[in-house]
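ok trying again, last paste got cut off:
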Amino acid sequence: MADTAIAPLLTAAQVAANFADAHPPLSDDQAVVEANRCYFCYDAPCVEACPTGIDIPGFIRGIATGNLAGSARVILDANIFGGSCARVCPTEILCEGACVRSAQEGAPIDIGGLQRVATDWQMAQGAQPFLRKAATGRRVAVVGAGPAGLSCAHGLAREGHAVVVYDARRKPGGLNEYGIAAYKLTDDFAQREVEFILSIGGIRIEYERALGRDLHLAALRATFDAVFLAVGQAGVKALGIAGETLDGVLDAVEFIAWLRQSGDKSALPVGRRVVVIGGGNTAIDAAVQAKFLGAEQVTILYRRGPEHMPATVEEQKWAKLHGVNIQYWSVPLRIEADGGRICVVTERQLFAADLVLKAVGQKFAGDGPEIENGRIKVGTDYGTSLPDVFAGGDCVAGLDLTVQAVQDGKLAARAIAAFLG
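nice, full thing came through this time. structure:
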C-alpha cells in the first residue's frame, strides 16, 4: 500500500460486519415460496438472457418440488461456476431483467438467490454430479486458472482429457479470487468452488508460471495436443495525465487484490479521504470497500453521466447507499502532491485525498496469436490464428463478466475436444 495510508479507522467488529455477506442466502422456506412464483415459461426469456444458457425454469422447478440434486445438476451442467455466478452476476440486466414477473410487477424472481440455494446444497454434499470419462491419452495446456480457464479445464476433463493449468499467481480463481469485492464472495468461497471443480479429476495446476516469463507458447504447443489461453487482461490502462505515478496513487485492481488477500481487514490502513477514478464495477467495488474499511469520504470521479456509466444502475445505487459520492461529468486533468497531500484536479473542482485509486480499465498484455483491438482475435470456435491454440475469457472481445468467461471456457472445451477428435 501507499505511504500516505494511515492507521485503521474502525474496530475489528465493525470491519467484520461491513464485509459480511452482502446478500445472505435464502432460507429453505423462502426458497420454496420464491420458486413457486415462477411461471415456468416455455420459451423463457430469462434463459435467453443468461450467457451460459442455464435452463432456469427447469432448475427452479427442482427447488419447488424438493429436488435440489436435479436442480444443481441442471445449473452446473451449463455453468460449473454456478455458485459464484449466483453471487456476482449482474442479474438485474441479465436473467432477472428479462423475467416476465419483472415486466408485469417490477418484482422478478430472485433467480440468483435460488441458484445459490441449489449450488450451495450440491457443494455441501462434498462431490459434484459429474464423472470423468475414460482417459483418452490427449493432453491440453490451459493458461490461466480463472473462470474461463477452469471452465475449459473441467469440460475437457469430463471428456477424459488430461489438463495442466498454469497460472501466474500463487492461488487459483482469477478475478473471483483477486478482483471481486470481498463482500460478494465471502468465507473463502472462491477457493472452495475451485476445489469443487477440480474434484472431477484429471486437472493439475502449476502456480507462479506466467506466459512470456516462465512459459512460452512455442514450447507449450510442442508439448501438448492443444493450448487454451485464458490469461485475462493483466495490463492496466493509464490515465495519461500528470501525477498518476505519485506515491498514494494505486491501481484499483491492485487495491482490491491486496484487500482480498489480507487476513485481518481491520488492520488495513486506507486513509480518511479516497478518490476513485473510473466508472466500472471495479471502481464501485474499490470505492465501497474503501468505505467499509473506514474511509470517511470516498468519491468516484466519472467522466460522463450516470446513463453512460459501465457499472450497472444497481451497482451505482449500492455505492450511494453506503455513502460513496459519485461525481459525474468529472474529468481528471492532473494529480498533484502538496506537502504530503494528494489532489486530483478536474475542470471544476479540486479533490484532496489520502489515497487515489485508478479504475479506468485493463488491457491484454502479451503476445502470441493475432491481436485485434487489444484482444486475442478468435473465430466462432474460439480458435486463434494458430491452429492448435484457442482463447477465451477477458483476453478476447466480449462481455467482461464472470458468466461470459465461463461460457467461453465451456464452448472452447467443446471446440478443443472436436479438434482432438
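cool. The chain has three domains: 12-17+236-362, 36-124, 139-234+364-420. Residues 240 and 358 are 11 Å apart (CA to CA).
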